[in-house]
Amino acid sequence: MQNIGIIVDNDLNSDIRVRKEIEILLKNGFNIYVLCFAFDGKTYPPIEDVTISRIEIKKRTKDILFFLFNRFPLYEWLWKKKVEKFIVSNAIDILHVHDLYMSKSVHLAIKSLKKEIPLILDLHENFPFAIQSYNWTTGKLRSFLSNPKAWLKKEARYLSYASKLIVLSESFKQDLLERYKFIAKNDIIAFPNVIDFRQFEKFKVDPKVEKSEKVTLMYFGGVAERRGIFDTIEVFKQGLDRKLNMELLIIGPIDKADKKRFLHEINSAKLKDNVKHIPWINLSELVTYMSISDILLSPLIKNKQHESGVANKIFQYMYAGKPIIVSDCKPQKELIESFNCGLSYATKEEFLDCITILVENKDLRETLGKNGFEKLYENFDNKDYENILVSLYKRVSYS
Prior knowledge:
This protein is of the alpha/beta class. It has helices spanning 16-27, 59-67, 74-90, 103-112, 127-130, 140-146, 150-160, 170-179, 197-202, 229-241, 259-266, 286-291, 312-320, 330-339, 348-359, 362-380, 384-398, and strands at residues 3-7, 31-39, 50-57, 94-98, 119-122, 164-167, 188-190, 215-220, 246-251, 275-278, 295-298, 324-327, 342-345. The longest helix has 19 residues, at 362-380.
């Protein structure tokens, strides 16, 4: 069976999407080798049947190199050299590369070795637009050094290095097909961030974590302005002014650029007794915190990046059997409305109305939550998505 080389510029273990794809490929008989980072001297638990090569680096050094990506291409040079060695050491037949910005360095490594190795490029986001929404690229000096708008021009070239493409949604797939005529329809698939059902079914609810008497709103994920966290806090404060009996639970790491503002907000006199922040939990603990919550939130700021697919958290929320409030990013809005498992909003006023309706109507919460759980199993608990990924690999193998 073929040797698949997975290239990802993180530490792998916490990357749910990459881990899921690896499990599918292992199940279908492929040999899996991974090249990724090891940050700050940490040790990581092994992953069964996966051979992992790690690049030892300080997280801060990695961040600086990535920040300067478009001005000084040291990041690409580093990856090119590491990928060359990785290919030779593991006799790689196919490379599965994660994120747009990684494609050139891998392409150059293949070219340098004078090999004919297919490159499958997996787009986790609409990167040219995503990078412009990050706070670390805003401001005159930071914008000059990081030059985020360069990706609007570089996207086509970086896509062209790929033999096949994987994206998060059908809408993102259609967008790329319309904009880039060199992409063949048979060379691109949509593979959404569907959860691993069997994994979640094994997770147990911790009875020691108690539910509040108040209606609990929960947000899970990266804590950042671009993810709508400050809109959520503002609307939550307005809800408190309406005397809504509720609290807000926020779970996830804070973006460095937003940390000072976020901590100032949640520690204010008005919020300190009504907002709880947990910086990190293991995925296995998520079912516990969703079980003690009543309403689950995905307040992503609407932009082209967030409309590239449905966030992983939406499927996790549906598994919890709780109602979901989402912003009007097209993919998540369409999913929530088609399954009748939550409410969507376009303005902060509508956001507050959604919260008010669900806080005050327990029966509606139960109905919407039940719909989400049932529709999740009806529509996503099958082998269709697994077959989509495997069939792409078969097309690469026999092309």
